[in-house]
Amino acid sequence: MNKLEIDWTRCDGHGLCAGLLPDDVLLDEWGFPVLRGREITAGELPDARRAVLACPALALRLNNR
Amino acid sequence: MITVEEIRVIGEARVLAGLDQGRLDLQRHLLTHGDQPQLTRADYTNLSEAVGLRGRGGAAFPVALKLQDLPARGVEAVVVNGSESEPVSRKDRLLLTQSPHLVLDGAVGLAHALGAPHVLIAVHDPAAALSVREALMERDDGLAVEVRETPGRFVAGEARAVLSALEGGLAVPPGRRVLPTRKGYHRRPTFLSNVETFAQLAVLARLGSRGFSSTGLISEPGTQLLTVDGAVQWPGVIEAPTGVPLDTVLQYAGAEPGPVLLGGYHGRWLEQTDGVTLQRPEVSAGIILALGPATCPLGEVTRVAQWLSSQSAGQCGPCVFGLAALVDDFARLTVGDPQGWHDAHRHLGLVPGRGACAHPDGTARFLTSALEVFDDDVQRHLSGRGCGRPVLGLLGGAR
């Protein structure tokens, strides 16, 4: 089961994740991501992986636990 | 600064035994408690499981589960977390300054059982550090026992922040969720717990599960240390059986009637104390703060919120911006701005679960329960007239 995760100590609120994964990530009033928390399906995995690679702070992670 | 001098016991004195005569040096410690029996790792696990012993630092994690999660060999260190970063709490400092040998017995006994070569005691209070160092001069434990002074900031007391500080890094929680039992001190398996947990382990080793269970709740027998403060006549540390009624403890401390904050700055407000009993996890690190009738609850809560906001490690955006926004919301609410009330509710939903540690979660829990319990007071403030009471600063917090 795949879920998005944020390392809050790294996240600087660049906001790229919300642009790349609008169904899974929203931005709060300070520009930090709010995760929907739902599971990433197999079909969405490639997009999610791309978003993880695009995070400039290396804060977005995909966790398969 | 809130100071606590009194020590009192309801029922049987266990971890505070012998302290009515002052600090226990090694000789008086042995006279009071007797020798620490040599137990195996299986003994410690079985005993902790039999009495349902839980960590006394606030998270109330079962000790037996923590022991079972350690690998069979290669345990690097036993760490005593004595940072006691809750500003009102005094119980751990009391144990380290007055009964250091009991804490050392618990930690060293467990380290021998686990085959761990290091015992580290993380302390930030200079008097506590001195007391433990003096105690170490009196004993020969056959392993490396070290006292390390760590920063006193609120989030610096978090388990992983303590480990980071012990390794020479910054005393802040890391971004990855790792368990100290798997990757602790220098990324090696580590048993870390609160000061009182080790004192309770030392008592448990001596009494056995049956003797230990002669007082307290069936589900979690034994005693607990409580720090009582606020609008009370006799603030101090009280040892009481688990499951003791909150009203009994308040009476003992001479508390004024009124709402009570249970569990410290990350705890919850109680409107009614009737029928509330004290046990983990609700009692958390054992802090009981009585508000009394004379002070403005919202003003007190705002002061604590200010302090909590100032104690953020500054690593995580939602904590830095969210807690600052909440302080502002509460300040506006207190002067009667209805938008402050709306903003506070929105921000309280945005903060929990969005940080490396539980600081934003705990702060939100404290403020959410304040809005619930002090609803009448909130309405009075929103009507623009205020509650007519001054802010006495009974809870500490920002000046």
Automatic annotation (TrEMBL), chain A:
- What superkingdom does the record give? Bacteria
Name it: Ferredoxin
| Pfam families on file | Fer4_15
Automatic annotation (TrEMBL), chain B:
**InterPro entries annotated for this entry?**
ComplexI_51kDa_subunit, Nuo51_FMN-bd, Nuo51_FMN-bd_sf, Nuop51_4Fe4S-bd, Nuop51_4Fe4S-bd_sf
* NADH-ubiquinone oxidoreductase 51kDa subunit FMN-binding domain residues: 50-201
**Which Gene Ontology molecular function entries are recorded, alphabetically?**
4 iron, 4 sulfur cluster binding; metal ion binding; NADH dehydrogenase activity
Which protein, by its recorded name, is this?
NADH:ubiquinone oxidoreductase subunit F (NADH-binding)
Record-annotated NADH-ubiquinone oxidoreductase 51kDa subunit iron-sulphur binding domain positions: 302-381
Cite the entry's keywords alphabetically: 4Fe-4S, Flavoprotein, FMN, Iron, Iron-sulfur, Metal-binding, Ubiquinone
The family annotation for this protein states:
Belongs to the complex I 51 kDa subunit family.
Give the cofactors, semicolon-separated: FMN; [4Fe-4S] cluster
Xref: SUPFAM superfamilies: Nqo1 FMN-binding domain-like (SSF142019), Nqo1 middle domain-like (SSF142984), Nqo1C-terminal domain-like (SSF140490)
User: What is the superkingdom listed in this entry's lineage?
Assistant: Bacteria
Q: Where is the signal peptide?
A: none
